[in-house]
Amino acid sequence: MTGIPDLEARRASQQKRIRIMLDAMRAEDQAKLKGGETAVAWVKEEQCIGCDQCTIVCDDDAIELYDTPLASPIMEIDVNRKARIIRDECTGCQLCVLACPTDAILMIDR
Ligand code: SF4
Ligand code: SF4
Question: Could you tell me the pTM of the whole model?
């Protein structure tokens, strides 16, 4: 009979396999992105859910969140947060693009 230690070992092995696969996929994504001093990040406002992940990874303080009314006829929420890039501070490092869960950030020509 399969015991808890067996299940834990299988789970750890699956986690490792998934981590390696995700890292490889992200490496491919990163290789396709523009970057460096000729590029700057850009937020697609309609895809931003205000989750704050990009501001956490940006160590150049190049992203700020701002409040905007939520455009929904069925939800009564006064404030909806969105991210925006402070272009002069952005170094084109791409970290925010890789961190964004909704693919709301692009790298564009500066
Ligand atoms: S990580 Fe993406 S969705 Fe989250 S606040 Fe930043 S741009 Fe918006
Ligand atoms: S590309 Fe780098 S420096 Fe520019 S906003 Fe994203 S994380 Fe910050």
Answer: 0.75
| Cβ(100) – ligand 1 distance below 6 Å | yes
pLDDT-derived band of residue 64, with 50, 70 and 90 as boundaries?
very high
Pocket test for ligand 1, best of 57, 105, 107 (most atoms within 8 A of CB): 105
d(CA 30, CA 41): 13
For the Cβ of 41 lying below 6 angstroms from any atom of ligand 2, the answer is: yes
CATH of the domain at 92: 3.30.70.20
Look up the domain containing 67 and give its range.
Answer: 36-109
Residues 28 and 43 in one domain: no
pLDDT score of 15: 79
Q: Are 57 and 75 in contact (CB under 8 A)?
A: no
